[in-house]
Amino acid sequence: MIDQPPAATGRSRRHGEERILTVPNVLTVLRLSCIPLFLYLLFARQDRLGAALLLAALGATDFIDGYIARRFNQTSALGAILDPAADRILLGVAVVAILIDGSVPVPVAAALLTREALVASAVLVLAGLGARRVEVTFLGKAGTFANMIAFPFFLASNDRDLAWRDTAHVLGWAFAVLGFVLSWYAAAAYIPLARRALRESRSSERAQL
After folding, report:
1. pTM
2. 86-113 burial string, b = 16+ CB within 10 Å, else e?
3. What is the DSSP string of 77-112?
4. Are 95 and 183 within 8 A, CB to CB?
5. d(Cα 37, Cα 45) in Å, to the nearest integer?
6. What are the distances in angstroms from CA 80 to CA 92, 139, 184?
7. What torsion do the CA atoms of 46, 48, 50, 51 make, to the nearest 10 degrees?
8. Distance between start and end Cα atoms, the chain
9. Is the torsion defined by CA of 124, 56, 137, 180 positive or negative?
10. Neighbours of 192 (CB within 10 A)
11. Per-domain boundaries in the chain
C-alpha cells in the first residue's frame, strides 16, 4: 500500500468533516424525530413502559452513532455540533415530561436540569466571546448515558402493571446517582477547557492584528 501524502490526507480529512449526510447524522435526526412519539406514548396513551423502552432505545443510539462515526470514519463538523445538541434536547424534554408525569423525584430532575442549563449558558457565552467550541468529554457522554438509563427506569417504576417496578425504582436511583456524579464532575472539568479555549481565541485575535 502506498502512503498518502500528508497534504492530501489533511485535505481528505477536512473534506470528510464537511459532510452532512452521514449515518451518525441520520441517526441523530431520527432520534430527535422520535421525541413526539415519546410524548404521545407518555401522555396520550399513558403507556409508561412503552415510553420508557423508547427513551432507553434512543439513549442507546447515542453511543451507537458515536461508535459508527469513529469506526467507519463518519465524523463530521455538523455531527460534532448536532449530536450533543440532540442529547440536550432529548434529555431536557424527557426530564420535563417525566417530571410532569410525576414519575421522577423532583431533586433528581432539578439537579439535571440545573446542570444542563448551566452548560448550555456556558456554551452560548463562549460562542459570544468568540472562543472555539469545547469538545464533549467521555465523562460528559457517560453521565448523559447514565441519565438516559435512569429516567426510563423511573418511568417504568411508575407503571402499576409492571411486576418488577420496585427493582426499576432502585435501578433508577442507582443510575441517577452515577449520572449526577459523572455529569457534574464533567461540568467542573469543562471550566479549565473553556478558559483555555478562550485564551487561545484571544491570542489568535491578537496575532492577526
Report:
1. 0.78
2. bbeebbebbbebbbebebbeeebbebbe
3. HHHHHHHHHHHHHHHHHHHHHHHHHT-S-HHHHHHH
4. no
5. 10
6. 19, 16, 21
7. 90
8. 45
9. positive
10. 9
11. 6-208
Distance between CA atoms of residues 187 and 209, nearest Å: 33
Per CATH, the number for 6-208 is 1.20.120
> What is the structure's pLDDT at 44?
95
Tell me what the mean pLDDT of segment 28-33 comes to. Answer: 90
Cβ 158 vs Cβ 102: under 8 Å: yes
As a whole number of angstroms, the distance between CA 176 and CA 147 comes to: 6
User: Residue with C-alpha cell 415510553?
Assistant: 51
HSE, CB side, 13 Å, CA atoms: give it for residue 27: 22
Residues composing the chain? 209
Name the phi and psi angles at 35, rounded to 5: -60, -45
Write out pLDDT tens, residues 5-14. 444 444 444 4
In this structure, how many other beta carbons lie within 10 angstroms of the beta carbon of residue 22?
20
In this structure, what C-alpha cell is assigned to residue 59? Answer: 439513549
Q: Residue 31 is placed in which grid cell? A: 432520534
Cell numbers 452513532 correspond to 65
pLDDT digits (tens, 9 = 90+) for 113-143: 998 888 888 878 777 777 676 777 788 888 8
C-alpha dihedral sign at 133, 36, 101, 148: negative
